[in-house]
User: What shape does this take?
Amino acid sequence: MSAPAPRKRGGAFRRFAAVFTKELIQLSRDRLTFATMLFIPLVQLLLFGYAINTDPKNLPAQIIMQDDSAFARSFVSALAATGYFNFSGTARSEEEADHAILANKAQFLIQIPANFGRDLVRGQKPAILVVADATDPTATGGAVAAINGAAASAFSRELVGPLARLQQSPPPFDLRIQKRFNPAGRTQLNIVPGLVGTILTLTMLIFTALSVTREIERGTMETLLAMPVRPVEIMLGKIAPYALVGALQMTIIMLAAIILFDVPIIGSVLLFVALTMLFIIANLSVGYTFSTVARNQLQAMQMSFFFFLPSMLLSGFLFPFRGMPVWAQRIGEILPLTHYMRIARGVMLKGAGVNDLSFDILALGAFTLAAMGLAVARFRQTLD
Amino acid sequence: MNEPPRDDIAIDVEGLTKIFDGKTVVRNLTLRLARARIHGFLGPNGSGKTTTIRMLCGLLTPDAGRGSCLGYDILTQREQIRRHVGYMTQRFSLYEDLTITENLEFVARIYGMPDPQGAARGAIVRLGLQARAHQLAGQLSGGWKQRLALGACVLPEPLLLLLDEPTAGVDPKARRDFWDEIHDFAAQGMTVLVSTHYMDEAERCHDIAYIAYGDLLAQGTAEEIIDASGLHTFTVTGADLHALQRKLGEDKRVEMVAPFGAALHVAAREKSALDAVADENRAGYRWTPDAPTLEDAFIALMNGAHNGEGKAA
Ligand SMILES: Nc1ncnc2c1ncn2[C@@H]1O[C@H](COP(=O)(O)OP(=O)(O)OP(=O)(O)O)[C@@H](O)[C@H]1O
Ligand SMILES: [Mg+2]
Assistant: This one.
């Protein structure tokens, strides 16, 4: 028995580069596929001109309570009675409340000012501030209407006797509703970040899902497996070219979105690009995992669609995430698109930063690593 | 080139068995092949040659058996085997959508050769493919594909070549060049295991292993295999050879009868029985004793593997 031959340093990187170059050449020769990849996003972006309307309830809301009068408490309970709000917490400061909105923990902030009860009784028309995260206008519309309704009848119990004169319309206080992030309620603002994610999911998934099965069907797998290249090197070499394609797609979609729909990127562009790349890699890993499991290209395609459908339905793209039943939300939390949707809306429309999005970033990262690990473990190194 | 392990055995496997869906495709195969020699691997279609070769280079896991290839364990040291073995598949399996140059550069890079572009250029010159260097591999004719596949397979200078029917569909001149090249490789110390269905190629090998329906039936040089077959043969000429062929085909004493140009080739295991057959059928025919060929030996082996059911007519 001879001693194992010494490995050259950087060998793994060279083999990765070999697979990468080969895939890139093959990709560039496949003109039709290449054109499709650049075209699909544009077509989809144009097709999705409208959104689906729904009316979710139980939206997370936080209260900044600066008054402890009976009036303040009744107002809150009137809001709770509408069923639209789920008071997840009381913020102590405005910064804390702000973070809750950016991190997607709250969709509404309700601020009841100091001396609210006193000013109300004195007839000084105190103002209640309601801040609504209107990134997804369909999700907040119903709740905003409910606030107005609740305000009208909130104090029927307290305003009796001498105070009955205050029970009249207009109500004895001001309700200032501030729609943040998307004040005009334009659905495109909400749809575009979602579309970026959906389009990337579909294309990235399919292209890598075919990559291993194609080699098996064309018979080239036999030669590839007979060569000294490791599963990780093959995987990374096959994923990397599509990450470039994904970057190209992202650029096209974003340019189109900015030019056609006037969608802003309020947060850091760099952060947006970096997190979109993470999301692209997450999807490429899923596709590649399918590719190692499927026996042929048809199976790989079917698996991709099996993954794509729930992504589209349960991620909050088509229906407001908080309007979905709990079990559906649980499934949604597993899908990369759900987290990307929050990231994209957060960075583009709300200007959220890394801190605000840390949970979703970690979830995407963990998902990617898990998919890659599974792919490497599942990769069949023999023809058995 | 890497330092070859000490001993002079390239392939040493014992009891290799492969079962596909309950069907034993390779049964208890034991092979011991010397280094720096050309070993022919023969057997009828579906006899398990490709399966055996795949088990040798770690592409299939044997259901039973063990052994080594170039001193590396075929079950546990697949990675080392892959570095030092060049495997040319039966079906063309380079990338048809890459050019010849790109295919060769890919191979050179995967094996970590210091100058992949230079190595690919050198291989193209050796193969005489300069004019087609930038043609897609998928557009090559069958024979050229085979040459390219061989070129890719020897590029990283392997110690062992496993060639699965490398000359199927290759013209005679190219086939001769091909075999000259293989002999050069062997002279340089490379071990070659080549499967083929051509008798002339079998005779060009130093050693032959014959496998039928999963069993190794014979092993040795061409002469040894012919001798071991114990066959005796006659060449028969005469008027109505077709009638005689039909008659002898039903004769239990005759192992095999086959037309050979304007003559009939008759073989049997028992010399006395064959002499008796000759005596009975001398009227109108000329019986000339001659030496059995490798093909006679193989057909007899194949018949034996079928337990005598059905003779080669
Ligand atoms: N992956 C597989 N799954 C199931 N059966 C297989 C598989 N590969 C080969 N076989 C079967 O194993 C048997 C031997 O096949 P193999 O390819 O090893 O024969 P071979 O000697 O190379 O034949 P040929 O001369 O035609 O190339 C055949 O009956 C074949 O159908
Ligand atoms: Mg075969």
User: Anything to note?
Assistant: Residues 1-6, 308-313 of chain B have pLDDT under 50 and may be disordered. Residues 231-291 of chain B form a domain with the Alpha-Beta Plaits fold (CATH 3.30.70.260).
